[in-house]
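A brief tutorial aside. Many learners find it easier to grasp structure tokens once they have seen a single protein encoded end to end. The record that follows does exactly this for histidine kinase. Read the sequence first, then the structure, and try to relate runs of similar tokens to stretches of the chain.
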Amino acid sequence: MDSESRVPFETEPTALETAPAPLEVRPTRGVSLFWRTFFFLTLLLTGCIIAWLQTFRALEYEPRALQSAQQLASLVNLSRAALIHSDSIARVSLIKTLASEEGLRIAPREPNDTFQLYDTDLLSRNVAGQLKARLGPDTVVAREVNHQAGLWIGFSIDGDPYWLLTDPSRIGPVAGTTWLIWLGTAALLSLAGAALIARLINRPLKKLSFAASRVREGDFNASQLNETVATSEIREVNIGFNRMAQRLSKIEQDRALMLAGISHDLRTPLARLRLETEMSVADPMAREHMSADIEQVNAIIDKFLDYARPDHMKPEEVNLNEVIETALFALGDDPKTVIKTRIEPALFVLGDPVELQRVFSNLLENASRYGRDPDSGVVQIDIAAKAKDDSVLVKLRDHGRGVRPEMLEQLTQPFFRGDAARSDATGTGLGLAIVERAITRMGGRFALANSSTGGLAAHMKLRRSPG
């Protein structure tokens, strides 16, 4: 590729922010198991408290109304009998004694007296009803007479109406505010207990989730769960998970050993075969074709080894600009390949330099092979990269025919090849699968989309280095 074929482009066909949905969509953040369990326990406790309150009202208010009405009726009847059977001098002394000793006040009831009935709540209405039933239908129970608050009971002595004033606390709220304090304390203790229960339920599942994430990252040694917990169900799950992790670790080790053996066993006879071809085949054309076949077999072996690399890796700071420049230099010079770049300077990402080099080499190879313009025969590749928040967005696109939309998700599947417009018998069907696997290992995301102006676009979202 000559110097004129690699130039920066000023107008990017599609902005990086318009990457396909898989790069930008965040997974829906649902309610955690702890809060869901706590919520349901809270609902259960709230329902129990409400049921308890209703039971308390049914068992306490009616008996208390009856008891209060009996006491007040007895008080009125005793006061009436005492006043009836006492002379005028003793009656005055009796009224003073009742006011000073019992807090009772007896006064004549005037026709112009104004009063408000004692009917503020269910208890007061029940008490008033019981008093009328015991003292007669002409009994009046009021909470205020002539703007003076209190518990007023209107009764008659020999046809003369009187008021009896007593303390309303005789039938006041049940236990005052004490029961509210105890109810609030019980509710707080219940919520604390619900939080503790939810935490106990959530803890083993949280550990299991963490261990599963470590296994997904290929770290099998850090995924061991406690096999001696007291709960039998959790203990069985932990034992099963540990055995599964051990088996996966053994399979991974066997796979690495097998691949190493295959690579060694295949490359040795291939090297001998190439040497014999160079020395024994006289026809230059046949020798060239045989050497090309051997190189293709070697490339296929490399692809298999690249795809089968372990998932676990330790990310490090990588200069993305240098990686892309190296991949472009390795592509070689081709006058029919034009590469335009628009890359911000000093872009550093978290990843593996060898893996990133492999990613861009595969993408450039794929674009060069399948992105050729059918009319002019020229391959035009656009590369753009920019930083956004804590990520680096990269877009690499060609100007070929693209692929059918229903095949986009299948392009990253191993050994899948697209339609005839993007097919090549020399391909292994692993290039894009290797790219997606490598980017996922580095904590990034990868997606493919047809460009609106033609061609296939590869979108990458890599983790930006904090340094």
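Self-check: The chain has ten helices and 13 strands. If you spotted this yourself, you are ready for the next section.
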